[in-house]
Specification:
18 strands, Pseudouridine synthase, PUA-like_sf, tRNA pseudouridine(55) synthase activity
């Protein structure tokens, strides 16, 4: 039996380095895991570092649900400069002195971007417009607008303000952000700068958490190359979703695709475990019955 056939299913929490795409991390994981059945939950831009959740084998079916969970970031925002990409990788398109901006003004701007908000994504992004990636349209010089989308910024905290050595007319802010899936941190930087009248962009971004998975459990590519292992799918599911333990009869019925009666489940996917501790499925409650979202028994 080949390594691909007998490889374990589970998650790998990678501490992504800067300068590498999320797809590049997936390519390396395929080599290490000995299988092409590898994916990731929630793309990180090449500039960004930190938590990237990788699924191997059957755990790839968890990724779409994990991608919808809350995320946490540590970032540096530079006020006084705007860029075409809303981050440090793009050409500077405008600048204005930011030295006169007060902490009170910054706090007011941050407060306006906290909570449920409507956010226009960065144009240089992978969002599709009529089937074409937004960044492709930008490269082709097309003039277009992206519609605003609802996102939730649960927390937007400013920890430090300082004048950067390489840009004495600018102002750097060290921040942490906790937000819903689909939130662009570089769009927050852009909008904060725009609201303060000086422009802004992101100069550093590190994702510190995706759902329950944080940096404490993440490993670098170098560490994984030395000792590759996955977080077993049972542990991964138990950490990320509410747990529902069923008896042998219920497990058999669910395995046959039968909708069984359920207790009051938490909204959203719930992880079902059999009497032997095996992870069976993700289910949602529908009219008092368990609707299977994704099966893992086979």
């Amino acid at each position: 039996m080949t390594r691909q056939q007998e490889g374990p299913s589970g998650l790998v929490i990678v501490d992504k380095p800067g300068g590498l795409t999320s797809h590049g991390v997936v390519s390396r994981m395929r080599r290490l895991a000995g299988t092409r059945r590898v994916g990731h939950a929630g793309t990180l831009d090449p500039m960004a570092t930190g938590v990237l959740v990788i699924g191997v084998e059957k755990a790839t079916r968890l990724l779409g649900h994990l991608a919808l969970t809350e995320k946490e970031y540590a970032a540096t925002i530079r006020l006084g400069q705007s860029t075409v990409t809303d981050d440090a990788e793009g050409e500077v398109t405008g600048s204005a002195p930011a030295g006169g901006i007060t902490r009170e003004a910054v706090d007011a701007g941050v407060a306006a971007l906290t909570g449920p908000i409507q956010q226009v994504p960065s144009k240089v992004s992978a969002i599709k417009v009529n089937g074409v990636r937004s960044y492709t349209r930008v490269r082709e010089g097309e003039d277009f607008e992206l519609p605003a989308r609802p996102v939730t910024v649960s927390s937007f905290a400013v920890h430090d303000l300082r004048v950067p050595v390489d840009a004495p007319d600018a102002l750097d802010l060290d921040v942490t952000v906790v937000c819903s899936s689909g939130t662009y941190i570089r769009a927050l930087a852009r909008d904060l700068g725009a609201g303060l009248g000086v422009g802004g962009h992101l100069t550093a971004l590190r994702r510190t958490r995706v759902g329950p998975y944080g940096l404490a459990g993440a490993r670098t590519l170098e560490q994984l190359a030395e000792s590759f292992a996955v977080l077993p799918i049972e542990q991964a599911a138990a950490a990320a979703f509410p747990r529902w333990d069923v008896d042998a009869d219920q497990a058999r019925l669910l395995g046959n695709g039968v909708r069984i009666e359920v207790p009051a489940l938490t909204a959203g996917p719930n992880a079902v475990f059999g009497p032997d501790g095996r992870f069976l499925a993700l289910v949602e409650e529908s009219k008092g019955q368990a609707k299977i979202v994704a099966g893992f028994a086979q």
